[in-house]
Amino acid sequence: MLHSFGGDFNKPWSEYAKNIRTELDQQSPWPLEFGDHSLMDASNQAEAPFAEYLHTLYVNRPADLIVSLGGPAVAFVQRHRRQLFPTSPMIFTAVEQRRIRYSTLTENDTVVAVAHSFPAIFENILRVLPDTKIVAVVNGGSSPNERFWLEELKRETKQFTGRLTFIWYNEFSLEQILNHVAELPPQSAIFFHLMNTDAAGIVHDDGKALKQIHSVANAPIFAHSDGFFGDGIVGGPMHSVIEGSRLTASVAVRILGGERASDIKVLATGFATPKFDWREMRRWGISETRLMPGSEIYFREPNLWDQYWLQLLAVCAVILLQTALLAWLLYERRHRRRSQAET
Length: 343
What we know:
Layout: E1 2-3, H1 13-27, E2 37-38, H2 44-58, E3 66-69, H3 71-79, H4 81-84, E4 90-96, E5 109-114, H5 118-128, E6 134-139, H6 144-156, E7 165-168, H7 174-181, E8 188-194, H8 206-216, E9 221-223, E10 235-236, H9 241-256, E11 275-277, H10 278-284, E12 296-298, H11 304-342
Helix pairs in contact: 1-9, 7-8
């Protein structure tokens, strides 16, 4: 497994790695031995030695399968494919389809990619918070991956001219971002996309950066991947890490079973069923009536009935029994008086 940012940290890629391993353990009929290697967002100067290290490691014992996770890892391995893994089958996954150079794919390659729709995310923000006027975009700063996505984001947000004003944090350090999101004007929202390196060149863990932003932000936060779900984002249409990992594992099993990688064609998957964090909905005053049809709500706190339904049923039963008993006693008393009056 070739990681872009490390196997044990940096969401959502760490979640993909963990879930792919889990799914492979469940789906594979064979015992599997894993080897993990990470670019750790290596600089261009470090790329050649890292490539030579991998070549030395696998030249005499080629891997049965390479799983490349994330855009930087995919870009690296496509540059060094012939040198490093000339015959080993490879899956490019946990990556957006625009980060794949399809023209250079070999007969040993297949792709399990996702397809972003940034407009869908911003339309969701306007749907659940229709008064939104400003969206602050967290997209890191100085890495090639972040520069690529900055251009894509700016291109896809042009259609919101006149409806939304965008603040771009690509020239901010994380410290400056934290100060800024704490004082956003009313009717603002935050879109968290990436935070691999900030404008100061400091490498960050996306998940930790998001938690820091959430701890000080005075506006709701939205994201594109449910790998961040539960860490302070409101929700909406997002990519499902579990579904993507399950699909990747099923393709891996087919390749390990003898199918040629290039014969396995997988369409890029879009956003999964929208889901929302009830705690963030309550915090920002988002009504359930504004959610997209079919949306799922998580982390809902149980109401009194959910918590004490058995006790409430018992109390109601006692009250009903007492009411019935009282009614019977009143009936008997009235009947006795009527009988006495008649005699």
